[in-house]
Hints:
This protein is of the alpha+beta class. The chain folds into two domains: 24-222, Cytochrome Bc1 Complex, Chain A, domain 1 (2-Layer Sandwich), CATH 3.30.830.10; 246-426, Cytochrome Bc1 Complex, Chain A, domain 1 (2-Layer Sandwich), CATH 3.30.830.10. The chain is 42% helix and 18% strand. The chain is built from 15 helices and eleven strands. Strand 9 and strand 10 form a beta hairpin. The longest helix has 18 residues, at 132-149.
Amino acid sequence: MADINRTIAPPSKxxxxxxxxxxxxxxxxxGIPLYYVNAGTQDLVKIEFIFPAGLRSQTSAxxxxxxxxxxxxxxxxxSAVQIAEALDYYGAFxxxxxxxxxxxxxxxxxxxxxxxxxxxxxxxxxxxxxPQQELNTLLQNKRQxxxxxxxxxxxxxxxRFSELIFGEKHPYGTALKxxxxxxxxxPSLVDFYxxxxxxxxxxxxxxxxxxxxxxxxxxxxxxxxxxxxKAAVSLPALPAVSASPGTHLVKKDDAxxxxxxxxxxxxxxxxxxxxxxxxxxxxxxxxxxxxxxSNIREDKGYTYGIGSGVASLKEAGYFFISTEVGxxxxxxxxxxxxxxxxxxxxxxxxxxxxxTVRSYMLGGFLRSIDGPFALADKxxxxxxxxxxxxxxxxxxxxxxxxxxxxxxxxxNKYLQEEGMTExxxxxx
Length: 428
């Protein structure tokens, strides 16, 4: 066997096209939309129920997250222990999640056990009772976590940054306060559950080995009129603008590190500049070989890690830069961040660097469609915005064809120091 010269990179291969297995749509008997991705080789399935029950929908703090956390803490027929045992016995996994815009309930199970495990999820979605004792325990644990997290500059920076860019009264900017734990009452959870966790507000996404029997089982348990509910609650549009640009400091005299958060309100993935902004962000701070990492970590040694991102939400989006550095180099790190922004505004990205980022992003996209669950995530990422699969065709084309001049123009449009919110938690 010939020796491999590891000083020479292996030849790269262009990715001509990518074949994405697309989700198909079906309606349950009561009209609830069901989308399914039939893919993969393993005889298992993930069933995800999606509701407009995110932080955006709550009228008081903690309601959305605690409702989500307590869904499996007891129903009219089973305790939390009985629910867990009923699923664990068959190797099934139950998961809930909540973000700014949505909440989800997921079941992972072998197909042969779906007929036994799905009724347990049906109970949780139709008859969760939110027991007071379990609520008290959960709030006690969350309060303790709140106290611990508030000692960390990274956590304080993340929370305060959202307040600064969106405003404390905007749902995306509302931060948890200590008195919120005492204000939360069990009836608020019940009301939120009734308003948002019902068929009239739900979508179902199924991935894995999906056949006619899978769909019939879902229709049996969720296609009746007992769960149809009223129409989804209509929420007013909430346009967002950067609420507090400029510099901000949350001083912590005992801090050994300072957390830096910088950024501004931008746009969601429906905006025509979003895809090109993804390329620009990758160059700037979106991967390990980015300019921020090369400068502030590798060259200057100010941090273990630094990154930037472009986040898309239903009502808005935002650009952010995040790092933690020693307090003695905080001001220098901020200076270098702005210096890298300025270079993108003034100089064209070299073709070699741009080609490296193209290859990285195309490879990342390939990894992101590997397997049925990943394919379902790709579908959800466009479904939520009313986009079609042609969005990904355009994205791949953008990666391959965006020019250095277009990226420089984009940097001049969006990466100006004016309008940026700069936050330091610790010392500067």
